[in-house]
Amino acid sequence: MLSPQAVVIDLAATLIVGSVGVLGAWLMRRRTTLSARNLYPPAGVGLALLAGALGAHRWDVALVCLPLAAPWVAAAVVGGRWRSGDLGAGEDLRNHELARRWVWQPATQLRDGERVYLRSEGELVHERRWPKSVDYVSMTGLAAHGPRLPIGAGQHVVMFGATGAGKTTTARRLIAARTLTHHAALLVLDQKGDPEDVQHMRDLAAQAGVPFVLFDSQDPTTDRWQPLWGSPDGVGARAVEPIKQSEPYYYDVLRRHLDVVCKVLHAAQMWPPSVPLLVDACQPGNYEQVVKISEGLADDHAALSRRAEAHGTYVNSARGTQDLSGGAFRLEVALALAGRALVTPRETPEGESVAVRLVEALKQRAVVMWRTHADTMPDEAAALTVLALADLHDAAEQAGVQWTLLLDEFGAVIEMAAQRGVAILQRGRSHGGQVIVITQSAADIDALTQRPGLLASLTDNFAGVVAHRQTSPESRDWLAKLMGTRSLWQSTAQTGAHGHTHTGRGSARRVREFRISSDTFGALARGEAVIYTPIAGQPARAHILPVSLPHGRATRIDPDGPRTPCEIPVYPEHQLPAGSPSDGVPPTKRTGPARSL
Ligand SMILES: Nc1ncnc2c1ncn2[C@@H]1O[C@H](COP(=O)(O)OP(=O)(O)OP(=O)(O)O)[C@@H](O)[C@H]1O
Ligand SMILES: [Mg+2]
Questions:
Q1: Which pLDDT tens digit goes with each residue over 64-109?
Q2: Ligand 1 atom closest to Cα of 161?
Q3: Of 44, 78, 292, 335, most Cβ neighbours within 10 A?
Q4: Ligand nearest to the CA of residue 196, numbered in listed order
Q5: Residues 100-135: pLDDT tens digits?
Q6: Pocket residues for ligand 1 (CB within 6 Å)?
Q7: b/e sequence 188-207, b meaning 16+ C-beta within 10 Å
């Protein structure tokens, strides 16, 4: 006979190991990809042994079998219930359940350290490990944890946020990391150009030990920029780029005209021409001079001379003169970029005419900043942005170095610069560039450009999205959708007594909700943002840690000094020669044989 004491101890042990079984089944469901079906065979064997012992009246054997079978049976019962619940949930939970494995089957290899597990309320979480091949900057200063943004070529990032929400401060952390760790050149197109931004870029250049170049369209002491370089075809195309979007008719007219003018200037070794020279040379009234120059060219340019002469018929026709006058005027407005100083080369003490070319600036890993003053001169700012993007597009290919481009407040010029913006994102991916686009609201992009779908196609290009506080409801909703949804169990409670009591009954159903609710984007504090990278998978809300750099003295271009490594010699005349070509192009002024700079 069994003592009652032994039975009590046995039952207590059975309860304890049964609970351990339930815990094991819970862990198996939450943290592993093993199916609850693995528990059925041992539970079945345990039950069979127990039933056999009871049938044979072998109480002593039954007492041994009971605690042995209990964990398996308990685990199989609860595991089975959870399994049928998951199968009934549909969607991701059902698929996850169906994909679970038997213990002898190998675990499915998930890509790059991805981990899938269940959180409370049946939320299926896909956690990805940051790939070793992608460098990053921690946005909160916690190196191992917290949200990160990728740094590297093609890892473009877009930042949204209402005015004063902290976009520029966030971008500075990213560009400082990229400039200092990858030694990438930095180009900043700042539509507002606050003095604080200038100071920060100067400090960054000092810290990186690279030259600082500042182009300010409203400052007569600005550094000088030479956007015209390369082949005559390249210069012709780039020069008319700023009016392509706004003046498509004049764009076509000028494109043909500039083709002839640039080829003649190139053949006459008046190359590369400064912007003022090109603007002067494309005036229809000055075309006679262009033809004269072409007539003075060597015999091997005979075909070009004939073409220049034939083109004269169009230029001198009433229609040609009218169109070209309009085109030249618009080109002058667009290229003079609000103040001629910016695009007029400076003179060195040696008498050389020089200006900064982006190819050289990129090779020097310089920090180059354009202040465009979009608030007071929106059209000029847009033209300057388009020209800078077109210049960088070609320069990146030639320089072959890593670079970062910051397009701050891009919404201010997006109407005209959208196309070039998309082009530079693609160029960055193939030619060592990382682009950071800052704009106030996601909804602006389609609305301002009148191009529905542009936002979606732009988004495909980004490896990171940073959302600061958003005011527009459309923008908040769009961001909530972008960051994705998760599905959860939602329970309801049945009430009684006209809603005064709970009956204890209820139901559960599967619902989908946004990972980050639309309202969250409206409630973010200054300096706080939601960071989302497809690499990490899950969006995270965080306070961005501003970067602080010591004040330093960056190398600047001395306006009265010799040519610096960022500058190239430019053809010195700013106007076409007035008389015959030989009078007008004095040999001493020539920069040597025509070079395709
Ligand atoms: N992460 C942060 N921590 C502390 N202060 C911050 C943070 N981000 C921004 N600030 C402060 O908020 C102010 C505005 O920041 P910032 O210029 O970066 O905003 P913005 O969104 O670029 O604004 P704007 O639309 O005017 O360009 C600054 O004074 C800055 O010091
Ligand atoms: Mg800003």
A1: 888 999 999 999 999 999 999 889 887 788 999 999 999 999 887 7
A2: 21
A3: 335
A4: 1
A5: 999 999 887 766 667 788 888 888 888 788 888 899
A6: 161, 163-169, 526-527, 544, 546
A7: bbbbbbeeebbebbbbbbbb
**171 CA from centroid of ligand 1 (Å):** 10
Q: Which atom of ligand 1 is nearest to the CA of 440?
A: 25
Ligand 2 centre to CA of 441 (Å) is 13
- Please state the φ and ψ torsions of residue 135, each to the nearest 5 degrees: -75, 160
Residue 519 has pLDDT above 60, yes or no: yes
CA–CA dist 571, 307 (Å, integer): 24
Distance 164 CA to ligand 1 centre (A): 5
Distance 164 CA to ligand 2 centre (A): 7
Cβ contact 527:551 at 8 Å: no
What's the mean pLDDT in 134-142? 89
Which atom of ligand 1 lies nearest, measured to the CA of 163? 25
Q: Which residue has the tokens 């560039």?
A: 433
Mean pLDDT of 556-563: 95
pLDDT of 507 reads 83
Instruction: Please name which of 239, 261, 392 lies closest in space to residue 314, comparing C-alpha atoms.
Output: 261
Reading the block at residue 72, the tokens are 């398996």
Question: Directed axis angle between helix 318-336 and helix 302-316, to 10°?
Answer: 100
Kindly report the three-state secondary structure assignment for every residue of 169-210. Answer: HHHHHHHHHHHHHHCCEEEEEECCCCHHHHHHHHHHHHHHCC
Q: Does pTM top 0.90 for this prediction?
A: no
DSSP assignment string, 441-461: -HHHHHHHHT-TTHHHHHHTT
* Ligand number with the minimum distance to the CA of 524: 1
Instruction: State yes or no: pLDDT of 42 exceeds 50.
Output: yes
The band of 4, judged by pLDDT with boundaries at 50, 70 and 90, is confident
Alpha helix (H) ranges present in 369-495?
378-399, 414-430, 442-449, 454-459, 473-482
